[in-house]
Amino acid sequence: MPNSTERDQLSTCNDLAMAVPMTESDDERLIGGLARDGCDMTKQREVGLFFFAPSEEVAGAVGRDLRADGWDSQILAHHGEWIAFANGRWMVVDSESIAKLRRFAEDVADRNGATYHGWQAKLDPGLTVI
Whole-model pTM? Predict the structure, then answer.
């Protein structure tokens, strides 16, 4: 889970308590938001993923799958739900890379009985979300 300083540096469509998973349209809005916020979209940036799970066991299974793929994953309880959060991947964020990321995340979620809720990306150094 990112600390408050790291969270301030992340551009997200929704917070952890988002009630509805991000859609492909949300992906495009978030990509556009990064560009509007002044990010250099040709540079790699760290991305993170969120999954909601019906139980600690399911969240743990998602976390294990993510770690097996090289992600830094954690699970936590939040308002009565289990969340698997992963970061540690760097990529150039564009429509193609996020579509590929979405396919991967949806496969992990489907395989484990969880729900993929979305992604986030770090802003360039010195930028903040208002």
Answer: 0.81
